[in-house]
Amino acid sequence: MILSAFTMSTVSHGNAGLWRHPDDRTAGYTKLSYWVDLARRLEAGGFDLLFIADAVGQLDVHGGDARAALERGVQTPVTDPLLVVSAMAAATERLGFGVTVSTTYEHPYLLARKFSTLDHLTGGRIGWNVVTSLLDSAARNIIGRDRQIGHDERYEIAQEFLDVTYQLWEGSWEDDAVVRDRERGVFTNPDKVHAIGHSGKYFSVPGAHLVEPSPQRTPLLLQAGTSPAGRAFAARNAEVVFAADPRPEVLRRNIADIREQAAGFGRKPEHLKFLTSVTVVVDRTDEAARAKAAELRRYRDTRGALVLLSALTGVDWSRYDLDRPIEQFETDASRSVLAAVDDPSLRERLTLRDYVGGLSGFGGEAVVGSAATVADRLEAYAEATGVDGFNFAYLTTPGTFDDIAEHLIPELRRRGHVRDHSRRAGVRDAVFGAGPRLPDDHPGAVHRRTPSPAGEPR
C-alpha cells in the first residue's frame, strides 16, 4: 500500500473545529520547526509521502463572504506549501513530498523551474499534485475575472500547461549537457540545450528550460478529479490518482475507467496508482479507539464544515436547512464532492447534517478501532475498490499521524503492506520500483532527445 499523510499549510483542512482540541499543534503551521518535526515523525513512522493540499483564494461562498471562513479558521489563513519542502527534505532521507500547484494561476515556465529546483534539493523526492482550481475568489484576485474559468476549459488549459512542462523537463536539456570542464572553462555544452519553441492556444514559451536535468526530470505526477474531464486528464497524465467516492462500487468503476482510458493513450494501466482519502482513529483496543473518536467528535464544527462544502461545490449552503435532504447541483466547482447524492436512492434520506456532521465529513465514514480492526477494514476496502493505498487525513496534528505510526503501520508491515525505501532513488522509484524517470509509455517521455554528438561547444 502507498501510505500518504494528507495535510495543508493552514490551521484547519478538512477537520473543521479540531484546531480547538488541546492536543492539536496545527496553529504552528507558520513555523519551520512545525514542518520539520512533522516530516521527521512521518519518515520515522513509515509513511511514504507527505501530501500537501493548497488553495489560492479565500473561502467566500458561504454567506456570500469570507467572514465565516476567517472566524472558523477553515483553510484561512493559508501559506505557500512549496516554501517549506526543502527544509523538510534536509531533515529526512526517504520521505516523498507531493505539493499542490494550480495550472490555472501559474505559468508553466516558472513552475517548471520551481519543481526542477525542488527535485534537485530533495534528491528526487518531489511530486506535483496537478489541480485546475475552483474558487471564484482566486479568479478575481489573480487573473481579474469575476468568475473562474469553466470546468472543462480549465482542463484544456491544464493539458497545454503540462505539454509545455514536459518539453522543458524532458527535452530541453540533454542528459550530458552539463560537462563541468574546469580546464577548458566550459560548464555547459550549449549545443545540448534546446529551445522548445512552444506556441499554443494558451501559452507561448519559445526558449529553453532554466534548470539543468534533475534526478527525476519530471516530478511524480499526482492528480485528483472524477468528472469525465478529470478522468480523461488523469488517464493521460497522472501517475498517482486521488479518487474518492463513498460508494465502493462507483469508485471501482471510476478506477477501471481511468485505467482503460490510459491504455487508449498508449500507457500501461499498471503505471497508474490510485489513492483514496481516509480518516482513521486507531488505538490499542477497539474500546480505546471508540472513546478517542467520541472525544474528538466534541470539537467538530458543523458550520465550519459547511463553509468548506460551500467553497468546494460553489453552492451557498448557509441558505439550506441542515435537516433538508441534500441535492446535487450543476457547478463549475468540484463535481466529485457531491457525487454520492447523484444516486437517486440516497437523495431522499441523506441530509446536509448527515453529509457534514461526521468526523471525516462529506459523506465519508471514519474508520475507528484497534490496529487489527482498521487494517482489516483497509484491506477489505482496497479489495472492493482497487485502490493502491490511502491518503490519511488528520483530525489533530501530530496526534492522528502519531497514532497511525504507532499502531496501524506496524500491523500493516506485519501483513506485508509497507514499502522498503532503503534502495529507492526518489519518490517515483519508491512508488513504482522502476527508477526515477518517467516510464517510456508516458506522454511526457516522447519529448526526450536522442543524445546528439558530443562535438565542441561553440
What is this entry, summarized?
With 458 residues, this protein is an alpha/beta fold. The chain has 15 helices and 13 strands. 37% of the residues lie in helices and 14% in strands.
Key phrases:
15 helices, alpha/beta, globular, single chain, 37% helix, 458 residues, 8-stranded parallel β-barrel, TIM Barrel, 13 strands
Question: What do these coordinates show?
Answer:
The protein has 458 residues and is α/β, with parallel strands linked by helices. The protein has a single domain (2-299, 364-446), classed as Luciferase-like domain (TIM Barrel), CATH 3.20.20.30. Helices cover 37% and strands 14% of the residues. It has 15 helices and 13 strands. The chain has helices at residues 32-45, 67-72, 85-90, 108-122, 136-143, 151-171, 228-237, 248-264, 286-297, 302-313, 344-347, 352-357, 371-385, 399-414, 427-432, and strands at 2-8, 49-53, 96-102, 126-131, 178-181, 186-188, 198-199, 204-205, 220-224, 240-242, 273-283, 367-370, 389-393. The strands form three sheets. Strands 1-2-3-4-9-10-11-13 form an eight-stranded parallel beta barrel, surrounded by six helices. A two-stranded antiparallel sheet has the order 5-6. Strands 7-8 form a two-stranded antiparallel sheet. The longest helix has 21 residues, at 151-171. It is globular and about 70 Å long. The protein starts with a strand and ends in a 26-residue tail after the last helix. The model has no long low-confidence stretch (mean pLDDT 90).
